[in-house]
Amino acid sequence: EVQLVESGGGLVQPGGSLRLSCAASGFTFSSYWMSWVRQAPGKGLEWVANIKQDGSEIHYVDSVKGRFTISRDNAKSSLYLQMNSLRAEDTAVYHCARAYFDLWGRGTLVTVSS
Amino acid sequence: QSVLTQPPSASGTPGQRVTISCSGSNSNIGSNTVHWYQQLPGTAPKVLIYSNNQRPSGVPDRFSGSKSGTSASLAISGLQSEDEADYYCAAWDDSLDGWVFGGGTKLTVL
Fold it and tell me: Between chain A and chain B, how many beta carbons pairs sit less than 8 Å apart?
């Protein structure tokens, strides 16, 4: 089955760190750009970052530059998001998504609160 | 404030045709293809239309997309109760070097 499954979310204090993972299956992971997209409670979708097939090109939304790092391991068909210096406004469900978002995971909830 | 502008809400009765607009600029819709997503309550988004007007397999032909200049539209004909959802447009933005989404349109079937 073609799917993306995220993990690693949870409750973290402001200033803390968290690492999200996304396990891909059912397709050739190494052939696709991959992204992280988040959705704050009751809000719309916001693209966070993406990474090229071989990891040679990466882009971030301005609000996370310098704090978040996207990476991938094609041998493990996995996508990662290292999140540092977390803020309350980073609270959201984080989805991994393929290419132009033709495939989404269910998401993992990140809550930043003291 | 989203880079792509969508109406916050839309509505229609069963069987009607509704359209949802998505307005952008030369750096996003004007230069790149537009994609549309449907998000049913409590679920992950699902691609509805890709590359302006292409339907993935399994998406009913009641859904159609179009693009002209720096704007795009999603049309839903023969509205059904199960179409009640949030709809988002998205495009790559060459100036921002990133993906941008519309703020979303909540569709209500009366």
Answer: 54
- What percentage of chain B reaches a pLDDT higher than 90? 99
* B56: nearest CB among A46, A95, A102: A102
- Comparing CA positions, the residue from A49, A55, A62, A51 lying closest to residue A94 is A49
What is d(CA B3, CA B47) in angstroms, rounded to the nearest whole number? 20
Q: B79-101, pLDDT tens digit by residue?
A: 999 999 999 999 999 999 999 99
Nearest chain A Cα distance for residue B2, angstroms: 9
- Span B27-50, average pLDDT: 97
- Nearest residue on chain A to B94, judged by CA atoms? A59
**What DSSP letter does each residue of A9-77 carry, written as one string?**
-EEE-TT--EEEEEEEESS-GGGS-EEEEEE-TT--EEEEEEE-TTSS-EEE-GGGTTTEEEEEEGGGT
Give the single-character DSSP code of B22.
E
Residue type for position A36 = W
Distance, in Å, from the CA atom of A6 to the CA atom of A106, rounded to the nearest integer, reads 7
Measured between beta carbons, the chain B residues lying within 8 angstroms of A47 are 90, 98-101
Out of A50, A61, A104, name the one closest to residue B45 (CB). Answer: A104
The neighbouring-strand residues paired with A90 are: none
Write down the pLDDT at residue B1.
86
